[in-house]
Design brief:
The complex is a heterodimer of chains A (374) and B (88). By secondary structure, chain A is of the alpha+beta class. Chain A is globular. In chain A, a hairpin with a 5-residue loop joins strand 3 (141-144) and strand 4 (150-155). Chain A is built from 18 helices and seven strands. Helix content of chain A is 58%, strand content 7%. A five-stranded mixed beta sheet of chain A has the order 1-2-5-4-3. Chain B is an alpha+beta fold and 88 residues long. Chain B has a three-stranded antiparallel beta sheet with strand order 2-3-4. In chain B, strands 1-5 form a two-stranded antiparallel sheet. Classes of the chains: A alpha+beta (374), B alpha+beta (88). Chain A binds chain B through residues 69, 72-73, 75-77, 79-81, 105-106, 108, 110-112, 139, 156-158, and chain B through 8, 10, 12-15, 17, 19, 21-22, 25-26, 29-31.
Chain lengths: 374, 88
């Protein structure tokens, strides 16, 4: 027996499967779908545009149409801004690579099915000061700079760049950090200026690693699985499974990839009736939003901060302190999503207080379990 | 006449649009959807031009009668002018 929240999530999944396969949803199923609830959930998952393409001919929802065109506008503006930056990077001889959504979105069956929230660019970190100067002189503000492996630049109304100096920071995943240590050796020139790119196989490995990184920390949403499905479908036989499996074993995520690939094929390709096992495997992707949830983040931190598998009182105290007072980068990211008005250096102390009151109260059960855990 | 500063025609994955960038984006937060031919005309308008030059370019590129092309070009330019995208 599933509750309303679960039903909405499965309805969103059903419509996503229809959209990505460019099939009309069945009339009977549509009559039993609460489209307002699905709309709100799609917004959380970054799937408004995708699901709109499945329902636009069947129902008239003006706000959804408006959101679709807003996403189209944002995607276009991000494209133009990215071209402006990469032209400059090439002019200066700075090697760089466009990552993630900006690459995958053009593989979707229709324009703007894949909404973008920002531009992710990997580049030669020797030039980080010059890059910062370029952004500032072009009207961007440096929202996050010099705290972690990526700097964030924003410009109203919608422009947002994450400039990566490495693909994975050491503190997040040491295995990935080592594997991608000398990343340029894994890339090839794209043929456009000083732009580089992964081979098709290596790009697939990267998106799985990126997905796993999110999954193992705060969780990740349905869109990750859809991205992977779109990529596999677009590249088809060009992907060398033997090579991919070999490389995934080196970074210890071969099992994860195999399990999720089977799930993706069942759900999106075969459109199979979901078994209990499918629902269990899908749950983390369906119920935690686009970037995962605070609850998952807490859980992963409890496990990773415990020494030698023993959870001492001191470890618990350390965990609680880290959870209550995360570092500034994490705090700024949290503010961006949960309380943008407090996302200013001078207001951060209030943001910490707000977070303690709202999120810790919300996840008090998880914290209680952590405190009682032996 | 030409497109005002900041208005940029762009195509991506089969979609043709004009969006406002830079300062223009603060005043115009819409989007203009085009088809392939109107996108071609919008690209002609990136530089200072007139309707006769655009007409010649369209007739050279597409298999269309002069009268039909002239009417469509005029219609598009009137729409873009009314929306505030064209100067001159």
């Amino acid at each position: 027996m599933i509750d309303e929240t679960q039903k909405t999530a499965y309805d969103m999944l059903y419509l996503s499967v229809c959209a990505i396969n460019q099939e009309k949803p069945s009339k009977e199923k549509l009559e039993n779908i609460d489209l307002n609830a699905v709309f709100l959930l799609c917004r959380k998952h970054g799937l408004l545009s995708l699901v709109y393409t499945a329902v636009r001919d069947c129902v008239n929802i003006p706000i959804w149409k408006e959101e679709y065109f807003k996403a189209l506008r944002k995607n276009t503006m991000l494209d133009l801004a990215r071209n402006q930056l990469t032209d400059w990077l090439s002019e200066k001889g700075i090697w760089h690579m466009t990552l993630k959504g900006a690459v995958i979105k053009d593989l979707y069956p229709e324009p703007c099915m894949r909404q973008m929230s920002d531009n992710d660019i990997l580049y030669d970190e020797k030039y980080r000061y010059e890059v910062k100067d370029w952004f500032v002189s072009n009207g961007y503000s440096a929202e996050l700079y010099d705290y972690t492996n990526q700097d964030v630049y924003k410009k109203k109304p919608v422009l947002n760049f994450e400039m990566h100096r490495s693909l994975f920071p050491k503190e997040q995943n040491e295995i990935f950090y080592d594997y991608y240590g000398n990343v340029l050796s894994r890339l090839k020139p794209s043929g456009e200026g000083t732009a580089f790119e992964f081979s098709d196989n290596d790009f697939y490995i990267y998106i799985v690693a990126h997905e796993f990184n999110h999954f193992s920390q705060s969780g990740t949403g349905l869109r990750s699985l859809i991205d992977r499905y779109v990529y596999m479908k677009a590249k088809g036989d060009a992907l060398d499974r033997d090579y991919i499996c070999g490389e995934l074993k080196k970074i210890e995520i071969a099992d994860y990839e195999e399990k999720t690939m089977r799930l993706i094929q069942r759900v999106f390709n075969e459109k199979a009736e979901l078994t209990e096992n499918d629902r269990e495997e899908l749950a983390p992707y369906l119920f935690d939003g686009l970037y995962g949830s605070m609850a998952n983040y807490l859980k992963s931190k409890i496990i990773s901060n415990s020494k030698d598998g023993k959870i001492t009182v001191w470890a618990k105290i350390k965990n609680i302190f880290k959870i209550l007072f995360p570092d500034i980068i994490k705090m700024r990211k949290w503010c961006e999503v949960n309380c943008p008005k407090l996302n200013k250096p001078i207001l951060l102390p209030f943001a910490y207080l707000y977070r303690i009151i709202s999120d810790i109260f919300k996840y008090r059960d998880e914290l209680k379990k952590m405190i009682k855990r032996k | 006449m030409k497109l005002k500063n900041g208005f940029v025609p762009h195509k991506s994955n089969g979609e043709y649009v004009i969006v406002a960038t830079g300062d223009a984006a603060e005043e115009f937060n819409g989007l203009v959807r085009l088809n392939e031919v109107s996108y071609f005309i919008a690209c002609c308008l990136k530089n200072d031009t007139d309707e006769n030059e655009i007409l010649k370019a369209v007739c050279d590129r597409y298999d269309v009668s002069k009268d039909r092309a002239a009417a469509d070009i005029n219609g598009l330019i009137m729409n873009l002018k009314e929306s505030g995208l064209i100067e001159g």
